[in-house]
Amino acid sequence: MATHLATHFTRRETNDGNGWRRLDIQKRRWNLARRNRHRARQGHRAQAVANARLRMKLDAYVRKGFTPNSPSPRLMDWLETWYHERAEANLRPNSRRSYENAIVRLNKMAGARRINSLGHKDMADIQDGLKCYSPKTATITWSVLKNALEAARDENLIRRNPAKMVRPVSASSSSLKVNPPSLPDDG
Question: Which in 12, 13, 42, 166 has the greatest CB count within 10 A?
């Protein structure tokens, strides 16, 4: 009797041409339950895909130097991001080393500052810090800073480039004193 309640016959087109097909209600219930479990898993997959996309966005956010609760990246983070994503590919090996060294120097001077809080005074402090280096080194370091901040302006991370508000580091060698060679003693 139970099998009679659990099965019934319907008229459907079948491959064998017979026209009658037996439907098992228990099997149908099991298939529905399996489909529901599958859909539930699909929901988890969709959620997993959404979470993966969010993780990718967060990674890109962090790669740009942002932290989840900060409105602006630190200078050191932005310099690294800018160098690896924009500048590095277009540089020759010696220029790469110069840029990397300039980034290290800038990180020592003002790396912890947020780029949106950099102002005229900060730029003047960086220039004062560059005075202990050779004019060429100071010029390269200043141009790296100016280019990185210009890229930040292009990305709308800052409104204007603070490095353009200050006169660039002079490349004059007035601070270096050259002693004339001494004349040989006759005597």
Answer: 166
Q: How many secondary structure helices (H) and strands (E) does the chain include?
A: 6, 2
| Phi-psi label, residue 42: left if phi above 0, alpha if psi -120 to 50, beta otherwise | alpha
Query: In angstroms, rounded to a whole number, what is the distance separating the alpha carbons of residues 81 and 88?
Result: 10
Taking only the tens place, the pLDDT of each residue in 10-55 is 555 555 555 555 556 667 777 777 777 766 666 666 777 777 887 8
Measure the CA angle with vertex 43, ends 38 and 45; round to 5°.
90
pLDDT at 65: 59
Q: Which two tokens stand for residue 14?
A: 């079948």
Q: Which residue has the tokens 């459907």?
A: 12
Question: Cβ contacts of residue 9 below 8 Å, gap of 6+?
Answer: 20, 21, 22, 23
Token pair listed for 122: 């900060």
CA angle (72 as vertex; 68, 73 as ends), nearest 5:
85
Query: pLDDT tens digit string along 139-159?
Result: 999 999 999 999 989 888 888
φ, ψ of residue 133 to 5 degrees: the values are -100, 170
Residues counted in the chain? 187
Rounded Cα distance, 131 and 104, in Å? 16
Q: For residue 187, give both structure tokens.
A: 């005597």
